Structures are given as structure tokens and as C-alpha cells.
Write the C-alpha cells for this entry.
Amino acid sequence: MKVTSDACIFGAYIPIENAVQILDIGTGTGLLALMAAQRSNAKIIAVEINREAALQAEQNINASPWHERILVKHTSIKEYSATHSNQFDTIIANPPFYSKQKPSKQASKKMAWHNENLTHIDLANTVDALLNKNGIFCVLQPMTECQTLEAICREKFLFPMIKTVLKPFEHSLPNRIITVYTRSNTSPAKKQELIIYRSHQIYTDTLHRLLEPFSLNL
């Protein structure tokens, strides 16, 4: 799977500096787990259902300075949550995006992009089971999917605290949203926006500063 700008922004932006125990749901290449380790002193569990992706994540993590704080688990998050409870103060997820679009014919992309193996209800149930009472849940989604997850999370008494929309350009409509949930109802949620590009493939100053600690090309 390619490393996307959206995922890098998510990993650089979410409030994890003071986290102690982080769960990364669907770690893929290990990108978010590695960014979380760079930004905090937390111990991190990175769960990945796809065997090849889990092996790649392990390789990437073992080659990093933070390998002693990150443990990759090759399992589904539903299986993992069945034997663990309320132990994380921070849960991060860049989950399968799409519930209605036609699935990819490529099996690995279908698993990574479409939520047949991890529905919104599954995700909310997992977070409810694994997040401690003072914890936060950070999730990156398309704008088209966020309202569905938010409604389900509210049934689990998980409430949006911060909503940050991502816009490709200043005059574009937002296409992604980062939502930070807590167990405390702080309604209304704080609303923010990030503009990614000022021109084609040229980051805004804000995004440049945000991503510079993680990129050799900025």
C-alpha cells in the first residue's frame, strides 16, 4: 500500500504527545505506529489482519529507532479485542474507507479500502471495549463516511471533541476529516480545517511545518 499524504497528515496532527498506551488499528506498513512512536514515549500495539502487510510493518519497525516500543499483532482487531479490555488511553485508526463504492478486484486493496471486514459498528464496538475512561479515539475518514460512524459512536457514549476537515486547496470542498472522540460529551466539537496544497504538489506553509519532522524531502 502506498503512503498517502492524508495518512501522514493524520499521524503528524493527532494529539498523542502524552499518550502512554497506543493502539493502531490496521497498521498497514506501520506508518502511523512509527509516527506515534516518534512523537511520544508510548508503548504501541499495531494490529494488522493482512499477513503480508503485518510482515512489512515488522520489517519497517525493526529498522527504526523505536522498535522496542512497538509490537505488531497479526490478527483481526475483533479477535484482539475479545481478549483485551480498556487498556489504551489512545486509539488511532485510518480504517477501510468505503461502505458503498464498488470494491476493488485486488484482494489486498479490497481489504484495505472497503469495510467489509471492519464495519463502522465493528470499529465502534472495538473502541468501546479497548479505550479507557479518559482515553481518546482518533480516526481519519472521507467526509462521506464520517456521519455514519459518529452516529454509531454516540450510541457507545463516544463523542467528537475535535473535527478537522482536510481540503486539497483553499477553494476546494473538504474530502477527508480527522475526528477525535472522547467519553465526555463536550458538544459542540471544536471545528478546524487544514488546507494541504497552495498549488499543485506544493504544500501550504502550515502543512510543510507539520510534515517536515517526518519527511526527508521537505
